[in-house]
Amino acid sequence: MTIDLSQFHQVFFEESFEGLGLMESGLLAMDPGTVDAEEINAIFRAAHSIKGGSGTFGFDRVASFTHLMETLLDEMRDGRRPVTAEALEVLLQSVDILGEMLRAAQDGQALDEERVAKQQQALETALQANPQKQDASDAASALTADGADINGWHIVFRPLPNLMRTGNDPLRIIRELAALGELEVRGDASLLPGFDQFDPEECYLSWDMRLHADVERGQITEIFDWVEDECDLAIMPLVASEHEVVAVPETVAEVSVDEGALSSLAQEQEERRSASDDRRQEERRKTAGRRSNDPARSATAAVSSSIRVGIDKIDNLINMVGELVITQSMLSMLGENFHPGQLDKLKDGLEQMARHTRELQESVMQVRMLPISFTFSRFPRLVHDLGRQLGKKIDLKLTGESTELDKTVIEKIGDPLVHLVRNSLDHGIETPQERLAAGKLETGTIELKAFHQGGSIVIEIRDDGRGLDAERLHRKALERGIVGVDEKLSTQQIYELIFQPGFSTAEQVSDVSGRGVGMDVVRRNILELGGSIEIDSEPGRGTGMLIRLPLTLAILDGQTIAVGGEVYIIPLISIIESIQVSPEMVNLVAGRGETFKLRDEYLPIIRMHEVFGIEGYRAHDLTDGLLVVVEGEGRRYGVLVDELIGQQQVVIKSLEANYEKVDGVSGATILGDGSVALILDIPGLIRLAARDVGLQLIKKTA
Amino acid sequence: MAPKADRSMQELIKGQKRVAQYLSFSLGGEEYGVDILKVQEIREWRGARPLPNAPDFVKGVLDLRGTMVPVFDLRIRFGLAEASYDPTTVVIVLALEGDGGGQVVGAIVDAVSDVLDIDISSILSAPAMERTIGARYLQGMVTINQRMVVLLDVDRLLEPVELTELIPSEG
Fold this sequence. Notes:
The complex is a heterodimer of chains A (702) and B (171).
Chain A: H1 9-29, H2 37-56, H3 60-77, H4 85-107, H5 113-128, H6 131-145, E1 153-159, H7 170-180, E2 182-188, E3 206-212, H8 217-223, E4 231-237, H9 257-273, H10 277-293, H11 295-303, H12 311-336, H13 343-367, E5 369-371, H14 373-376, H15 379-390, E6 394-399, E7 404-406, H16 407-428, H17 432-437, E8 444-453, E9 456-463, H18 470-480, H19 491-496, H20 519-528, E10 532-538, E11 542-550, E12 555-563, E13 566-571, E14 575-579, E15 586-589, E16 593-598, E17 601-607, H21 608-612, E18 626-632, E19 635-641, E20 643-651, E21 665-670, E22 676-680, H22 682-693, H23 695-701
Parallel strand pairs in A: 6-8, 13-22, 17-19
Antiparallel strand pairs in A: 1-3, 1-4, 2-3, 5-7, 8-9, 9-11, 10-11, 12-13, 12-20, 14-18, 15-16, 16-17, 18-19, 21-22
Helix pairs in contact in A: 1-2, 1-4, 2-3, 2-9, 3-4, 3-5, 4-5, 12-13, 15-16, 16-20, 22-23
Chain B: H1 7-13, E1 19-27, E2 30-35, E3 39-44, E4 58-64, E5 67-73, H2 74-77, E6 90-98, E7 101-109, E8 111-119, E9 138-144, E10 147-152, H3 163-166
């Protein structure tokens, strides 16, 4: 049976990139000179998974490269190699190269062989540089030389209780061992609990085995390859029992379910393919062929993304669907022979149904939520590298990494955040000398915080650097003609100027930041996500950026409005206020362009019914309806509607899935009575109105 | 322009299938049919939420268990007789295979009539000039019990309308 392994590639790549992230953050957290076994273990495991996976899927280059990294890490873990800054640097660079290799394999693109070879060389040099390495390999060879005396191996295999949940079967391992030669197995059932506590999915047994065969240690460890993280294992030569226990039992505190799932999956594949090497070759050729002549396919594969969801969230969902089904069947039984006396029961049932449905909706939303650590995790490396490059000492503090955000938001907020952090590093934090001269600590601090605040997520980036120089900003704005000479601006307004297009304050353009294409793009990206950004700064004390984001893009807080017989939703975030106009507030400009005066501003009026061609509207006169003051693309407008109905949260449904983009409408939703309501896209509506009424008129009155 | 031939039609032509089922419905007094495999469901017409500034045959969107489905009035779409909405007016929900992947749309018709077993060999190619509907939307026609049924190629309904096709031909 041949199995198309490529179907698992996506999962493998995703897991590998996660592994790379883990390795990177682990390496950054390590201090030269100290050996933190837990940390090295975590890195080692990640490398090991990548190696195992890439071997299974036929990415041999990746596997052999990872193997070198693994060897280096292994020696550090065993204390055979000191943890030096150089070694860590080599490993960090190797992580980058490994990432490139994986990406190249994923997209089916050519690899920069030269760089890989160079890095491989660096790794090998690092490996050879170890004086103790020689001893180690000597010991190993001594052991193999002893092979003649060794007539077997003593294997103690103690699986962790969760071994079977990861899809591994101890029996298979024993069978494979038995295939190597005569195997003496003694089972240990002492840990078996009473029947009432017995969980059939846990493994309580352990084994003490003697393998009487002239085999190499490698052959045995290979069998245990997939389970070594899920068991305590000791392999000792049988005769030469005076030799130390070489494989140190290694307990692993946490094993993620998903990781196990993949390993078991891959292992199954491995098993089915058994040792049939030529078939593997064939597979590889097939993959290579497909990769090379089908770039379009790989491109689309990269677009369709998947999401990894915690098993608890799924269980929760299943529970709720179960509840819902029970309620539904209760209701349908009630409906079969209903008499008026059961009205209360019916009401109860419906209420229950409504509650379950709401809970279900919330849980489903939860599935799309990811912790913001997905984005935050890249910053330690960024700060490390940039700090080095700029010669600044920086302490990065991350808080609230487990705050959850919609996947789409997470993906889109990454780049703006990187930009802001780079800005803080480049412009905010001073050089150590400057800091000392200013009486501050030599090491600057950048804080990245994420937290919930009233239905939205706030991400805060704060540095203790020099702060914004209002005077210089103002001067620059004058130079660039962004503000007029006679305009009076508050300090806060001056700070806001940095969000203007083409505004860069860096005296010298560095390759870190300061090309003047930054902050306006940052703000635009955040606005596109339905969020906002605030800035505060204190000279000499630092700058803070406050980003507010909606929890999810799938739900929106809206104001329901009516025009004629139609109902629309205006996103609450676009609404400034709603007012009733009196005739003296209204100005008519050149026939059709209408404006009204709100406090000191003249705002153009958009008549909904005109723009959307709605019939039967009530507000023929401005005074008959209400004006909803909205803000879009930095300008304010008054939208004339018949009446306001209420505020509610609505679930956004796409119109484009089955139809096409409709101007002035961002989507649709289903109201409580089951009818459809369109969600207005305020910037789109403004453009539409401008086109209708005549751009000139609106411009003139503005 | 390479015609985007209907898949089931191709199968039919290759002789892999001999009989196909079509859902027949009436539009402005004439009888039409669509491949029943394209039909997802039939719903009573209960109105839809109009879309702003849409062509007149787009009657709006309706909620199909959480999905927004645009509804086209085929009578207006093909410039047939006056479109009236009465209790027999129904929406045929069709799953189309457009260029951009699958799409679900609703088609308003006067009434659904029957499910027809049509022998492939009895399908005749439709003469282009005889009808008000442009030939590009036609798959062919067939006579069943002395009634003529025009088979529509629904996958092409979403293609941009050409103005000339919307003007009813003389007579």
